[in-house]
Amino acid sequence: MNEKETAKRLHLLEKEIGVLVDDLDASKLDLRGQIDDLRIEMETLKNLMHQQFPDFPASFRKAKEQTCQEQNPEWIRE
After folding, report:
1. Fewer CB within 10 A of the terminal residue: the chain, N end or C end?
2. In angstroms, what CA-CA distances link 64 with 18, 35, 37, 78?
């Protein structure tokens, strides 16, 4: 392979990497949007449960701690 062919292949690889980076950025943005939607839905559900059951926040914290300990102690975050 001569220098010209090598330069052409390098240029094509750079273009391909650029496209992959753009796709990755778009995917990350989409995932962040989906995570935000889930957060809003979770807060909505927690607010609704609190309205229906005033002791829900304390019960939820206790259930969350228990679930985290049973599933994976590293998940516990304050």
Report:
1. C
2. 42, 19, 21, 11
Q: Which domain holds residue 46?
A: 3-75
Q: Which residue has 């750079």 as its token pair?
A: 14
What is the domain count for the chain?
1
Assess contact for 64 and 54: CB atoms under 8 A: no
Q: Outline where the chain has alpha helix (H).
A: 3-52, 56-71
Across all residues in the chain, what is the average pLDDT?
Answer: 91
Give the whole-angstrom CA distance, residue 69 versus residue 48: 26
Q: CA-CA distance, 1 to 53, in Å (whole number)? A: 74
